[in-house]
Amino acid sequence: MQSEHAVVRSGPLARPHRRIEPSHGLIPVDLGELWRYRELLYRFLWRDFKSRYKQTYLGPFWAVFRPFVSIILFSVIFGSLAKISTGSKGVPYPLFALGLLPWTYFSSALTGTAGSILNNGGMLQKVYFPRIYAPLSAAVTPLIDFALTMVIAIGLFAYYRRLPSWHLVFMPVFILLALVAGLGLGLWFTGIMVRYRDAGYVLPFVIQVGMYVTPVVYPSTFIPERFRWLLALNPLTAVIEGFRWSLLGTTPPSIAALLVSSAIGVAVLIAGVYFFRRTERTIVDMI
Amino acid sequence: MTELAVSARGLSKRYRIGQVETAMMQASRRLRRQEKKTIWAVDDLTFDIKEGDAIAIIGRNGAGKSTLLKLLSRITEPTKGYADIYGRVASLLEVGTGFSPELTGRENVYLNGAILGMNRAEVKRKFDEIVEFSGVEQHIDTPVKWYSSGMYVRLAFAVAAHLEPEILIVDEVLAVGDAEFQKRCLGRMSEVANEGRTVLFVSHNMQAVRRLCRSGMLLEHGKLVTEGDSESVIRGYLASVGRTDDGQRVWADDHVLGDETCQVRSVSVADDEGVPAAAFFSSRPITVTLEFDLATVEPSFTAGFDLATIDGVVVFRSYLTDASDEVGMKLKPGRNTIRCTIPAGLLNNGRYLINLRIGLHWIKWIVYADDALQFDVIADHGESLFLNDQARPGVVAPILKWDVIESSFGQDSVKAPTRLVASP
Description:
The structure holds two protein chains of two kinds. By secondary structure, chain A is mainly alpha-helical.
């Protein structure tokens, strides 16, 4: 009876064949498989968003609340007390401090990505799916929060009776770069964190220091000219400066700096993906 | 002509023992010039599985069954060797993998489907069928955190049951859910096997293995010990898990049955004078004695057995805690001996099996060991000449109370006890 089935159904050529064996060297990314599993990204996003504010009274309000308080604090400390110049005429510090929003997104994306494998450990040990969807969805989910925090920007624009410049259409590019950088760096962290939980202790520190070496609370013109090229090595510089430019029309980042930043961001991501491909083979053995 | 579905050659997986080293541990190990400790969880396995076969993978805990399934379902990579897989694989190592408590039943069906590799159209097409199979229609839009554990498991299995892979890999998933549900799962899996798909099935439930699989592989310490028809593999397994004397089975320290909380030491069947035997007359009670070691006493702990026939029909299940939920309080950490009596005059001629069932009520099985012990019964409990002179059908042969309530003599019928007739 079985042989009948085998004959009725197609021969071995029609059945997909896969060899399971130890892999070596650079493991290519199976794009076809990623496409077949694309539904996962949407399902993970929905799951994470829905679970994020479960049993909270104010729900997504919290996504807005924290950056809002930070903006006020920074405006008082750096704007009013330290009197840091925003580097552009007519841009009050509170508007300038909106640069915190993409930074907040970046740090959530990075933290989420870094912990994605450990957070989904149980599932990874029980079923196969392209592992990269765990970090990828963790990097994309905070975009929802980011969109919500734009309410703060709208509020501040209304308060100062301003309209954003037409540069706004470029904003998605800079957010995409934030995603690329957050995911790229996060992939490195998740690969290391699975083996050495030490990475979990390093990460908050990296984010904290990162905020001060990136022109988030100060403009890049604040840094002496001869050191400014150092800022360009940090992809987040382009993200924050670009975001502010697209929203407020402040000094745009130079094209060269933008290209360098983006290239570094993309390089970190590609290297991160390949590093992740190497670790994902046996990632569950270490969870 | 039958094609291969799985073909493994020297498939091996090595694990490091212990945790990831700290810098201090590494330094001290290097000073002592020791190698890292490793274990081959799956050791040089070579086998072929034909398309359409239903194969049981059996072995004790730690024999490498789960690791083998993880390798074949691509959850982790082998260290050496390879396996060729022909066809789409779906693995079901757990029901409800990735179920999220905050999501509704409907959302979880889609999420779980996506995790198992189904696309949206596929899930959509089967959605009604899945919900019907699960029997939770009314609650499909309720978050699953409000589900009872039974509903949860039924919905989760329903999704997996509607996968259409060429190769289905199933781990001990039947250990959850009630008997009715287990029957449905098993039924569904037989269907899958009968559709000509290949099924790899890991279970400690030998009855399920017998029903589902014609052939099997016995693993021990990561190595393939026996392969062949499932009966002989099961026999090999039973021989490896413990030794049987007449009416008694003892587990040695190196063949532990149980987990760290409860370990079975022995099970025995004896007559009413306490003499263990392999055969009994049904006219006298049979006692079943169970000895086990407990680390801690959980309030939901219970121990007992299924009495089954050699054909796998369960005659009854009996637990220590059946008559009163307070009996369990008498258990103490350390060695416990419990005994129950199967009354005289119940069992029929034939061979019976003791399937050990130890666990935490509603939480988990600790021991689910089929065929722990066998004994024969010779039915002799009737006074009547007509009872014992022939093989009577039936799993049990109780003597029920019969009355003659109406008999006639000649033409006049005489109504005997009139109290059964409603009086005007």
